[in-house]
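Reminder: ligand-aware prediction takes two inputs, not one.
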Amino acid sequence: MPANVLAVLTAPDVGGRTSEPFRFVDPDGAVLQVRDLAATRGDGVFETMGVGAGRAQAVDAHLARLARSAAMLELPEPDEAAWRAATVAVAERLAEHAEAFVKLVYTRGVEGTGRPTGWVLGSPSPDHAAARTTGIDVVVLDRGLAHDSAAELPWLLQGAKTLSYAVNMAALREAKRRGADDALFVSSDGFLLEGPTSNLLLRRGDRLLTPATSLGILAGTTQAEAFEFGRAQGLTVAYEVLTREALDEADALWLLSSVRNAAPVRAVDGVARPVDAEFTARLNAHLLARRA
Ligand code: PLP
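Here is what comes back for the chain with pyridoxal-5'-phosphate:
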């Protein structure tokens, strides 16, 4: 069974379209040049999507977001057909794994060349069973920006999925230091945002809620699918501007992300929260069965 599968895009942007859109290469070999702006500046964007038995999930939504993130960074428009072909081919090579994931990375390229770099790396997924059932402990961390700053400060690239995730990783380490599993960012003025690698979902009565993307958070593909699922169950769904108190008022909370899917939150800052095991199990079954 292959552990990692790597495809390098021949020309990841529309300007360089070729007949051979990608080639498989040794994932342990030397592929990335040290002067690539991904390595020196974290200057690029990425996507991570789940793969179930060799089929990549929510490909359309992820490719659309890759293009949106690229536009926010003023990168050349990605060649959607090339990325799709590479993604599908890498996912197929992981067919023996019940759950795997692919990571698409699109960078500004080797400094001075003006040519972007792109690759798709596939790997088997870690076991997320405990997070999906028992749940996760979460701490609330201040992201240090006002909830309405995204439109005024576009150079901060809020809402783009950039390669500059050192801050997000530091937030996860801080959560671990505090004895928790994950973090939830709030704005400096007390509004709920997102996790370092996830979106927040709340259920209040028969309503499913998530913080509005106008708050400078990533538009989650898993969250969008959870809303579809909720609607089909007869729930009302809404994007809202929510304060920290909404966490205490919720009947159930989840952090949502591709690959881990729905992780119920069983405690916030050490205070126990109710877990809806039955709804969570059905939501995760739905998310695992996602198609392109
Ligand atoms: N928010 C951030 C900051 C993320 O990094 C991610 C995913 O990694 C998400 C939200 C969830 O997005 P998705 O459900 O599309 O994986």
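Residues 48, 194, 197-199, 218, 220-223, 256-258 surround pyridoxal-5'-phosphate (CB under 6 Å). Residues 59-72 form the longest helix (14 residues). We will return to this case in the review session.
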